[in-house]
Design goal:
Structural class: alpha+beta
Number of helices: 8
Order of helices and strands: EHEEHEEEHEEEHEEHEEHEHEHEEE
CATH superfamily of the largest domain: Pseudouridine synthase
CATH topology of the largest domain: Pseudouridine synthase
CATH class of the largest domain: Alpha Beta
Length: 292
């Protein structure tokens, strides 16, 4: 079997399927097991899931350093074991009386650099075992706070819950650093307001430069599998630099070159082929990862 075209597949993940389930579907479509993802989505969540095929899987670790964007609904008045609607209810408190402006004000505390305790059912490893598995096994899991950045957190709507429930639903859009848990924001907002809180809906709208406008549903991929070529993916995600043939020859061997870079940069040969990611170090441009 010939090697599949290396590149990215940007999926609009549906709810009710795991990220690994999406990977399995794309492996079949691409005809290779060499498919990875740039950050999972919970089964309940929908939206942008970036997959790498072939050599592009090596690009994913660098894409995971980029920011992500979400649209979410936070329900105040109910706390759950998983900080989302899939968990068991742990507490309830009246919330419908809350002033929407007080909710908006409370959310400002979560903008900027913050120390966030990840949700206990995260995929973070604790002594070699995933935190969510420890929770499933009945263990009490206490994770350490991590520094994350919330670039934007905007309230779109605040409304009373349905069916007369004493809850308040808050629709938000959020742009944040990779590693930020939207569920944890829902949990912590509920704690700050004394009501408890959890997510009832989560949709990832972007991973770095890849948003819903370039995402394809699984049904669309079944009808016509398409991959974003590696060179196009690199140009979209990183600052780019086109090299002359002498520089390109050095880069193909991973040698340092004289080039002024401002950060992680994608390098291309004169034909437009993507060669490598380089960064400035010790007054020269040095290899981070070579792809040719």
């Amino acid at each position: 079997m010939s090697e599949p075209v290396p590149g990215l597949v940007v999926v609009d993940k549906p709810g009710g399927i795991t990220s690994h389930g999406v990977v399995a579907r794309v492996r079949r479509l691409a005809g290779t097991r060499k498919v990875g993802h740039a950050g999972t989505l919970d089964p309940m969540a929908t939206g942008v899931l970036v997959l790498g095929v072939g050599r592009a899987t090596r690009l994913l670790g660098h894409l995971m350093l980029t920011e992500k964007a979400y649209a979410a609904t936070i329900r105040l008045g109910v706390a759950t074991t998983t900080d989302d609607a899939e968990g068991e209810v742990t507490s309830t408190a009246p919330a419908a009386h809350l002033d929407p402006e007080a909710v908006r004000e409370a959310l400002t505390a979560f903008v900027g650099e913050i120390d966030q305790v990840p949700t206990a059912v995260s995929a973070i490893k604790v002594d070699g075992k995933r935190a969510y598995q420890r929770v499933r096994d009945g263990e009490d899991v206490a994770l350490a706070a991590r520094r994350v950045t919330v670039h934007e957190l905007r309230v779109e709507d605040v409304r009373a819950g349905v069916d007369g429930a004493d809850v308040l639903d808050v629709d938000v859009v959020m742009r944040c650093s990779s590693g930020t848990y939207v569920r944890a924001v829902a949990r912590d907002l509920g704690a700050a307001l004394g009501t408890g809180g959890h997510l009832t809906a989560l949709r990832r709208t972007a991973v770095g430069p890849y948003d819903l406008t370039v995402a394809r549903t699984l049904e669309e991929l079944e009808d016509g599998y398409a991959v974003l070529p590696l060179a196009d993916a690199a140009r979209r995600a990183f600052t780019s630099l086109d090299l002359d043939e002498t520089q390109a020859g050095d880069v193909r061997f991973g040698r340092a070159i004289d080039a002024e870079l401002t950060g992680l940069t994608a390098l291309f040969d004169p034909t437009g082929a993507f060669l490598a990611l380089y960064e400035p170090r010790d007054d020269r441009a040095r290899a981070v990862a070579v792809f040719c």
